[in-house]
Design goal:
Elements: E1 3-8, E2 17-21, E3 41-46, H1 52-66, E4 70-71, E5 75-78, E6 84-88, E7 90-93, H2 94-98, H3 102-105, H4 108-129, E8 137-147, H5 165-169, E9 174-179, E10 187-189, E11 192-195, E12 199-203, E13 210-214, E14 221-223, E15 226-229, E16 231-239
Parallel strand pairs: 1-12, 4-6
Antiparallel strand pairs: 2-3, 3-13, 5-8, 6-7, 8-16, 9-13, 9-16, 10-15, 11-12, 11-14
């Protein structure tokens, strides 16, 4: 594991913490988009963009949606855009599977809050990386995750492997995570780990905390296995390529 440094503790209330890292060569093999493609790379953490109260409201959206299904293993996802919902060992399309019942689960206010939070995160990323917010496009997959200590039943449940988002998802240029529960209070394990050559840098989740980073191999990362309790988060990611852009989810 090497040396581990804590980038952000749960007990910290960070206005903003940013760590610049050299950009990897990944971006050279992709089309460049002026005003968006990373020229400065790194990772940031802020507790000043989303309030704890908003994070709790968003977690309730996740809980209501995930109560309709859930994985047999330890990791369940809910994607409000595509409708993908973990169910047993598979995924179903929430909108097709439940039809008009969805109106009883989610409200217009839920989707308005989701959109507002997404916009604020997008603006903060643009500001920190010195790019144009209007040149960034929400991209898929953007999803809620619920993780617990249940053993993996399929490869989808194995969330703890090191990976690079640009390699895994292709369209990602900037990744953000909004945490919806607290490390060591709601769950144990489950810290976010940036894996650098010389050391690991960890982020301890806390409700309302946003962690964001450039999606190339300069930010190889993993999530520790959850040991107890339940960890909720939402992954919201952005592409510089308008062809990979998606709209906000609609009820």
């Amino acid at each position: 594991e090497g040396v581990t440094e804590v980038l952000a503790r749960r007990s910290d209330h960070l206005q903003e913490k940013f760590m610049e890292v050299p950009c990897s060569e990944d971006y050279g093999s992709h089309k460049r988009f002026a005003g968006c493609t990373p020229r400065k790379c790194g990772r940031g953490v802020t507790d000043a963009v989303i309030t704890r109260e908003e994070a709790e409201r968003i977690r309730r959206i996740a809980e209501r949606g995930l109560s309709l299904g859930g994985s047999d293993g330890g990791a369940s996802i809910l994607d409000l855009h595509s409708g993908a919902l973990s169910l047993g060992k598979h995924f179903v399309n929430l909108y097709r599977y439940f039809g008009d019942k969805i109106q009883d689960i989610f409200t217009e206010e839920d989707f308005a809050l989701y959109r507002d939070v997404r916009q604020r995160i997008q603006q903060r990323i643009a500001q920190v990386f010195g790019i144009s917010s209007s040149a960034m496009y929400l991209t898929k997959p953007t999803f809620f995750s619920r993780m617990n200590s249940t053993g993996a039943k399929t490869t989808h449940d194995e969330y703890w492997h090191p990976h690079v988002d640009k390699v895994t998802y292709g369209s990602f240029d900037y990744t953000s995570l909004l945490y919806l529960s607290d490390y060591s209070r709601d769950f144990g394990g489950g810290r976010f780990v940036f894996m650098d050559a010389d050391s690991n840098k960890t982020v301890e989740p806390r409700a309302g905390r946003v962690s964001f980073f450039t999606s190339g191999s300069e930010n190889l990362h993993r999530v520790e296995r959850v040991q107890w309790g339940t960890r909720f988060a939402i992954t919201i990611s952005f592409s510089c390529d308008p062809q990979h852009g998606i709209g906000d989810p609609l009820l």
